[in-house]
Amino acid sequence: MSQSSTFFMRLQQTERLTDPLCDDVVVKLAFAPLPHQSLPAFIPGQFVRLQLPKQPELQSSYFAIASNPHDTHTYEFVIKGVHPLSSALVDLPVGEQVEVEGPMGKGFDLSEHQGKHIILMGAGTGIAPLRSVWFDIIKHRQSFGHVSIYAGFLTAMHHLLTDELASLSEHDIQVSISLTSGDHDWQGSVGYVQHALADKRPSPENTVVCIAGMSVMVDACTETLLDLGFNEQQILLNF
Length: 239
What we know:
5 helices, alpha/beta, single chain, Rossmann fold
């Protein structure tokens, strides 16, 4: 899957994930292939380059595929409107087309880690590539040991995929949510994901960790993992 292809998709559904009162708009977009076409298979954690044919002046950008890798009828993305292209995608009308190049990147291929414990770590929209990973883990749940997710968000209004993350306990997947800024209604961890990890101190024995997010977050989580006794071979990145 090292060679990528160029194709088109059509927006099928859009769903706002952040609270309506939140200034930061994050949406989940579901795209379907054009008639008589199919979407390429992808490794969990891979990404694509997106561009809007009707707005060629907007620079293309890369977005992680957030959908189930075993369902190639749809590509889903979790996108925050932070630059011209992502803002245009957030406001894209249903039925509009996007040009796609990919999939690309090494992703998180856990086929070589069957029998191991898995930790997923992401913050904000960094959980997008991890979503495809937990779908894959659910499909092969008996092939792995303990599975834990450490997800971090700025505030409760920035909390993404709330119901879906809560439902993962049905698949024996433990989820720890951290808010950078908590309030009197928040009963969970306050701080960054690496602080929650340091508090729980998981054993590095027979464990691999998938990290996705901004480089500062990845570096901080990596440093915490090394302090806990993990080695660099146990820390997986998707690029």
